[in-house]
């Protein structure tokens, strides 16, 4: 079992780097991970670049935004498919609500899910190279929900490397 406390060997200024790396690994190990794929919500994803917004109709009635890490953004900009390993996409979803200020406008209501796709062709070879995570209030959804991820992507987006979202101009 890993200790949450790093063991430091002081060698000049190197101890600071060792401490930082050990703490980062310790924090990563404690993050809730999705069943099956062991995907976690990436740190700092809310600062990532927008790929595209979307609106999901009934029965979900959600507003969504998909963001991507630098690898994802570069791949979208180049039109590269399949996406390279290291691509991470995060979909944020909120209940669709009517704006109190504008009759014709929608606004995000309560958050519903954060969904994550991670590309690693070797690790996730049986699911088109993608690992999936669906989180509700920061906790992973159950295994049954995660078993539906790839089947849905395979049925509807196989020709686009299993990714629904297209880059918004």
From TrEMBL:
CDD domains tied to this protein: cyt_P460_Mc-like
Pfam families: Cytochrome_P460
The Cytochrome P460 domain, residue ranges: 42-165
Span of the signal peptide: 1-21
Classification via InterPro entries: Cytochrome_P460, Cytochrome_P460_sp
Keyword annotations: Signal
Keyword Signal (UniProt): yes
Name the record gives this protein: Cytochrome P460 family protein
Organism: Dyella koreensis
